[in-house]
Automatic annotation (TrEMBL):
Signal peptide: none
Protein name: AMP-dependent synthetase/ligase domain-containing protein
Ligase is among the record's keywords: yes
Similarity annotation: Belongs to the ATP-dependent AMP-binding enzyme family.
SUPFAM superfamilies according to UniProt: Acetyl-CoA synthetase-like
């Protein structure tokens, strides 16, 4: 999943968790080499990206990416307006939906390392890992039902995900 700081990032991220899909949250600044490295490691079935990203402005990279990673079965793009449109899927009614989240001690999603030694590495994080991080962050930072949070960091960044954004969504007010 590679979306910027847009509402669709959060809607998509939490929806994927709800159905038991463990996403990789690529930073919006990541390019061809990073995306190919992540795909080679996890063999994704789904790609979610944005037409506003230079790589996805047309279909040339997308077609090459699909050809190089045969596990990829579905590609959804924000701002596509066509058959791959993310908004269409977000707004499609879920007939007979049954939530199937992964158990708390299993991988929820893959966080990225800092990339100080090259391409960032994928770090599996369980629901329990992040639940602990969120609870402690709420305690340390005094997050409560009155808290409002403006995220200026990349939405997919480890600090924003583990310490701030998910804390705001899990505060007593529910976000």
């Amino acid at each position: 999943m590679q979306l910027g700081n847009v509402a669709e990032f959060y809607m998509t991220f939490f929806a994927l968790l709800r159905i038991g899909v463990a996403p990789v949250n690529a930073l919006f600044s990541h390019q061809r080499s990073e995306l190919n490295a992540y795909a080679a490691q996890i063999k994704p079935a789904l790609l979610i990206a944005d037409r506003e990203h230079a790589l996805f402005a047309d279909d040339s990279f997308l077609h090459a990416f699909i050809a190089e990673h045969p596990s990829l079965r579905v590609a959804l793009l924000r701002n596509d307006g066509g058959e791959r449109d993310l908004a269409t899927e977000i707004n499609r009614p879920a007939d007979n939906f049954i939530a199937n989240p992964t158990p708390a001690d299993e991988v929820a999603f893959f966080q990225l390392s800092g990339g100080s030694t090259g391409t960032p590495k994928l770090i599996p994080r369980t629901h329990n890992d992040y639940d602990y991080s969120i609870r402690r962050s709420n305690e340390i930072c005094g997050i409560n039902a009155e808290t409002r949070y403006l995220n200026a960091l990349p939405a997919a960044h480890n600090y924003a995900m583990s310490s701030r954004v998910r804390s705001a969504f899990s505060s007593p007010a529910g976000g």
